[in-house]
Design goal:
The protein is α/β, with parallel strands linked by helices and about 250 residues long. It is about 40% helix and about 20% strand. It has nine helices and ten strands. Strands 2-1-3-10-4 form a five-stranded mixed β-sheet, sandwiched between helices. The chain has a five-stranded mixed β-sheet with strand order 7-6-8-5-9. α2 packs antiparallel against α9. The longest helix is centred in the first third of the chain and has 25 residues. The protein is globular.
Length: about 250
């Protein structure tokens, strides 16, 4: 009777270790190319998803245009979270992404920000003044938030005359650093960068959405797999939506 009990216990433990081993084998690592404006919320999403699934996400933040170029040149990317709604469907159409996997995960908002209290007024009229020397924007050719900033300046009739005062960042993260460090008194950044901590410093103007094209941020699966599809499903869940909203984004 004792020997039989021991054998049953050993069999149970063996089965348990096999199950644990099986789960460990199924845990994957996903390489995620993410637009710089979405780096902080993506880190929060990755941590939550990792806790729930065991999968690990390696984040590569940068400009949407640069990520697109890297993907079509063979970069080892599993998922692409862009800052626009142009490049993800283009990757699908060109055969570099999984057909039908593209979707809008967030709607971004543009903000004119200064670390100086009182410099930015409630209508952004400072842009037409001589109260600043440098204005930082992301490169419009690479970053959708930079393209939106250019559209705002064009709508105000200021694009040509302000060229000598522009400081261009490769992406919106670098643009933020220009303003934060004082290299530029003003800068167009993502609302998520300003309001993530809930207590922004300085002065700012939330740009009316009608002054630029909507910033529809889309994602797409580049390399198919179970973990990749699971994460995309998670991003569209109520739990993920709560995280995305907490960083100042709207949802489609």
């Amino acid at each position: 009777m004792y020997r039989t009990g021991v054998n049953l216990l050993l069999a149970s433990l063996t089965g348990l270790w096999c199950l644990v081993g099986s789960l460990a084998v199924k845990a994957d690592t996903l390489n995620v190319a993410v637009a710089s404006n979405f780096q902080a919320p993506m880190q929060a999403l990755a941590e939550r998803f990792g806790q729930d699934s065991g999968h690990r996400l390696v984040l590569m933040a940068g400009s949407t245009g640069k990520h697109y170029a890297q993907i079509i040149n063979g970069a080892p990317v599993d998922l692409f979270f862009a800052a626009d709604d142009t490049r993800p469907p283009r990757l699908e159409a060109e055969g570099y992404a999984v057909p039908g996997s593209c979707f809008t995960y967030a709607l971004g908002r543009l903000v004119l920000w200064s670390r100086q209290t009182g410099l930015v007024d409630a209508r952004g009229e400072v842009l037409g003044s001589d109260d600043f020397t440098h204005l930082a924007i992301a490169n419009p050719a690479l970053a959708p938030y930079g393209a939106a900033a250019q559209a705002v300046l064009e709508a105000r009739g200021l694009w040509q005359q302000i060229q000598a005062r522009l400081v261009r960042g490769e992406n919106i993260a670098q643009t933020y650093q220009f303003v934060f460090s004082g290299s530029a008194e003003l800068g167009f950044i993502a609302a998520s960068q300003l309001f993530a901590d809930g207590s922004p410093q300085g002065s700012w103007w939330v740009v009316p959405a009608g002054l630029h094209a909507p910033i529809r941020q889309q994602a797409v699966i580049v390399r198919d797999g179970t973990a990749a599809r699971q994460f995309m499903q998670f991003v569209q869940s109520p739990a993920a939506h709560a995280i995305i909203r907490a960083y100042g984004y709207e949802l489609p």
